[in-house]
Amino acid sequence: MDVQTIIANARAATGLEDIGDPAALEGLEVLVKASNEEARLSERGAAMWEASITSYMVNRLKTVDYINKHPELLERPIEKPTFVFGLPRTGTTLTINLLSADPARRCYRRFEALDAVPPVSGDYKADPRYQAELAKGEMAKKYMPQIAAIHWEDADSPSEDQYSMAQSFCSQIYDSQVNIPSYRAWFFAADYVPTFRFQKQILQVLQENVGGKWTLKNPWHPLFLDALTTVYPDAELVMTHRDPVEVVGSACSLLKAVRPIYTEDLRLGEIAECLLATFDQMIARQNAYRDKHGENAIFDIQYAEQLKDPIGTQRRLYEHFGTPFTAEAQAGMQQMMDYNPQGKHGKHHYTLEEFGLSAKWVRDHFKEYTDRFAIPTKAVD
């Protein structure tokens, strides 16, 4: 796998040349080198991995071309976007699903996140991209039910906006899917501002025909809050919290299910190492952001509280940001809860021990975090 081949194949697939800001190539160079040297990709996995990286370049080329043809779209504002984040498995998906049920909001939907151009209009359910993603979902439920039980998105569910960041090759999604510690080291130190600038352009394209208050979700946003608010200075920040003993095992289990797609040499200790290093960075950086801007700079949601009173929690979120909580929003959220009961796609089973960890170790490691945010925790041996 090499960078020039990936770019050439993407250009051949689209007939387009302009990749936009060349800063994107720095991450691509690091990603390809790390994938070749560290990921232990199987033959089939290597082909799939290269195809995945190429698809992000294809989407980037198409978006840049659309912007070049419609530069007026970059004049349209994105006002007070809401960003939902938190350690993975802390309820970010429930939060974004509730928010997306408000008809006044606009979310980054799965089928368009993976293929944004041209922007959808009218009945999106007739769009071939939606139909293709629907078919992929049915295949996933049939052949990878364990992943569906851990994390599920409908074809038109709000997806993680890290898919937009992946088009600048500066996204935690790559580090989750394969073992690439040198890319992780680069990623932790990267300048995220160019990535968010391109993400904003993607959103400006997508809102051409379908507007609303942008509401986005990406668990990993605590890594780059300064860059995020540089590009979106009026952003509304929302962080979810849950007992780390439950978070770490669940997140490790998700990567355990995903990584065999690309490698036959799965090492569970690497998964724990990857996530613990990332979680430590996330906590430290959002702490630093609060220390600089004040505790109220981020609205906090406790996982246990939201499960108990999901709509009441959202009402408090709206009040915090001065957003009217309409009858339409409440009705949409109730309908969403009725449609998506907990465990709808199966039960998720995991243990910490298989990743070389224990509940006591995790509890001790994250004690400062759980104390600072008064996160409800269970007793451990």
Distance between the termini: 47 Å
Counted by DSSP, the helix tally is 19
Strand content: 5-15%
| Biggest β-sheet strands, sense, barrel | 5 strands, parallel
Q: Write out the strand line-up for the largest beta sheet, numbering strands in chain order.
A: 2-3-1-4-5
- Estimated structural class: alpha/beta
Instruction: Catalogue the unreliable spans.
Output: none
Q: What overall geometry do the principal axes of the alpha carbons give? A: globular
Element order: H for helix, E for strand: HHHEHEHHHHHHHEHEHHEHHHHH
Mean pLDDT figure: 92
User: How many extended strands?
Assistant: 5
Helicity range of the residues?
55-70%
C-alpha Rg, in Å? 20 Å
Describe the structure.
The chain is α/β, with parallel strands linked by helices and 381 residues long. The protein has 19 helices and 5 strands. It has helices spanning 3-14, 24-38, 43-69, 92-100, 110-113, 128-143, 145-150, 162-166, 172-177, 181-189, 193-206, 225-231, 244-258, 268-293, 303-308, 310-321, 327-339, 359-365, 367-372; strands at residues 82-86, 105-107, 213-217, 236-241, 299-302. It has a 5-stranded parallel beta sheet. The chain is globular and about 60 Å long. The mean pLDDT is 92.
